Amino acid sequence: MLHDPAQLDLMFQALADPARRQMVERLSRGPASVSQLAEPLAMSLSAVVQHLNVLEASGLVRTEKLGRVRTCRIEPKALRAAERWINERRLAWERRLDRLGDFLAETKDET
Amino acid sequence: MLHDPAQLDLMFQALADPARRQMVERLSRGPASVSQLAEPLAMSLSAVVQHLNVLEASGLVRTEKLGRVRTCRIEPKALRAAERWINERRLAWERRLDRLGDFLAETKDET
DNA sequence: TCAATAGTGAAGTAGTTACTTCAGTATTTA
DNA sequence: TAAATACTGAAGTAACTACTTCACTATTGA
Fold it and tell me: Taking the domain B5-109, which CATH number applies?
């Protein structure tokens, strides 16, 4: 389900915005309320809530409301899914380069 | 330079589109020409070139033109930068959870 | 109970994105 | 040298994004 292309779209889209990355950065240091997330950002609370909704829809952030305070926290499983997608492609490429290097080294030996 | 927020914007933005991820996927298996990249995609060549320009501007893909053929290949350094950003945030969160677990285990022992 | 706090939701807007088509330019190949 | 190949670039368009403001609803604390 986390390999679902649509889910990956949402995750990378979510991470493409600097304000949202700043929110994830803040949350990586521990849970926070909406106002705490908004505090360092130069935009309206409404805008922050909209960014938060993007993050939540992507699965990268989970929130929970208690009383009038909404507490937000990171969902490491989703982060790991995005990380893995990149990692797998990079490794495929690097393994290819290694094999190519081996091949070239071998052919050189044969001359 | 690869930690530059603007560069991360471009990379995550680039990865947010399924067509572009498919192109990266293809390139992870080896270099390809523009037409080879376009072949499995249900869109015009022009659209593919536009996607390719986005990938190139993000630094994820490097291209080189020889004769009339433009050959594209992955830039693993850029992939690694995106990967690292996610990884660092995820690890920060997980280390926090570990410390919290230790703390709770200790407090329990003290009862 | 009344004011302050914390967030929600809708509507509007400027700018961006993901395409399209069409017309063009080099470079090869027959 | 003529036709086919491999792109390239500009212009147009529909949908989407990142905000804004303003009006609103719960919840909490004095």
Answer: 1.10.10.10
